[in-house]
Design a protein that fits this description.
Layout: E1 6-9, E2 15-18, E3 26-28, E4 34-36, H1 56-59
Antiparallel strand pairs: 1-2, 3-4
Length: 79
Amino acid sequence: MNGEIETVKNAFGIKVKRCCASCQHKSIDYEGVRICNLLGLKVQHKFKCSSWQMSYGLQKAGNAQGVVRHFVTRQVVIE
């Protein structure tokens, strides 16, 4: 089921590409290879299947409940 990558919107209107890279069921093995937990196959980031589900982090993207922190650096001059 490969082909053109579709985009869908989450609940907050953020566009998400519908592919393995944004799927809830992906995992990375110890060698750094992407594996689909449902199919048990090694897959590329562009792979898509009928059981795609948006990952939890991308479902919450855009809800504006994050905290912005300003980091201040201080410079100490020793004379």
